[in-house]
Each structure stands twice: as C-alpha cells, then as structure tokens.
Amino acid sequence: MDNNLLNKIEQDSYKKRPDVKVGDSVKLHLKIKEGSKERTQIFQGVVISIKGTGLSKNIVVRKISYGIGVEKIVPLHSPVLSKIEIVKRGSVRRAKLFYLRKRVGRRALKVNNLKDIYMTDEEDLPVEAEVVSEEVVEPAKKEEE
C-alpha cells in the first residue's frame, strides 16, 4: 500500500502533543469510563520508553504506587489520552530506561539533571481585545440670558 495515501488518511487523527522525551516526568490525563459515567484520572510518572512512529507511537510511563512499580503503555494519539503535561525534563544517556525496574525506593525514579519545565498540549485561546471607545462628552453649556 502507498505510504503517501496512508499519511493522508492518518493526518486527521493526529493530535497536538508536546515533545515528550525519555526521562521526562509527565502527567497523563486519561479518560476512564465507569458504567455510563466518564471521568479523568491523572497518572504521573517517568517516561521509560518511546516506541513506534506516526499514529502508532506509544510511550511507557512508570511510577511507584505504595511500593509497587506500575507501568502504563499509552498510545500517544489515542482519544483515551486527553492531555499530557511535562512536569520535569530529565537528561538521560539511554533510549530505554528499563534499568529503573530493578531499583527500589527513592532511587527507582531517579533521573539525572532534572530541569523544572512545564509543557502541555492545551491550546491557549487568544482573548479578543475589548474595544473601549472613549467618547469625549463635553458638558452642556448654559446659555446666559
């Protein structure tokens, strides 16, 4: 099948996402359906792997919850993922951080040279400028008779 044709079809499904890299601390806002209700749940952790390209690009996020390591594999352009926030940017020398699985405690999510950064995929809507028309009102002059 022609790749150009696939790219044209996939173009509508892409979502604007921040530039997520391995080693970043991120907050994933996931849509959870419970019966007829839908809510947003935040999953905060470190990106340990990025795999795939285009619409099939997946990220693996790891966090420690009550002493147990939890990993989530999330498609980057999925409708389940409503928003991504990058909290901290870590510099790493590996493409995959699977060695973090063997670590315990505080060292389990330690990534070198963390920089505080905040990026999100929310679009800031420009505020329409309110036109304030300043009309000069001259006081009415009384005619002297």
Plain-language structure description:
- By secondary structure, the chain is mainly beta.
- The chain has one domain: SH3 type barrels.
- It has one helix spanning 3-10, and strands spanning 25-34, 37-51, 58-65, 68-75, 81-89, 115-120.
- This protein is located at the 30S-50S ribosomal subunit interface and may play a role in the structure and function of the aminoacyl-tRNA binding site.
- One of its GO terms (molecular function) is structural constituent of ribosome.
- InterPro entries: Ribosomal_bL19 (IPR001857), Ribosomal_bL19_CS (IPR018257), Ribosomal_bL19_sf (IPR038657), Translation_prot_SH3-like_sf (IPR008991).
Q: How many domains, as an integer?
A: 1
Q: How many beta-strand runs? A: 6
Number of helical segments? 1
Helix-strand makeup class: mainly beta
Residues in β-strands, percent: 35-45%
Helix share bin? under 10%
CATH-derived topology: SH3 type barrels
Inertia-based shape: extended
Instruction: Please tell me the overall pLDDT.
Output: 81
Radius of gyration: 25 Å
CATH architecture: Roll
Strand count, sense and barrel status of the largest sheet are: 6 strands, antiparallel
Q: Can you write the helix and strand succession as a string?
A: HEEEEEE
Low-confidence stretches: none
Spatial order of strands in the largest sheet:
4-3-2-1-5-6
CATH class descriptor: Mainly Beta
N-to-C CA distance: 95 Å
Task: Describe what is shown at a glance.
The chain is mainly beta and 145 residues long. The chain has one helix at 3-10, and strands spanning 25-34, 37-51, 58-65, 68-75, 81-89, 115-120.
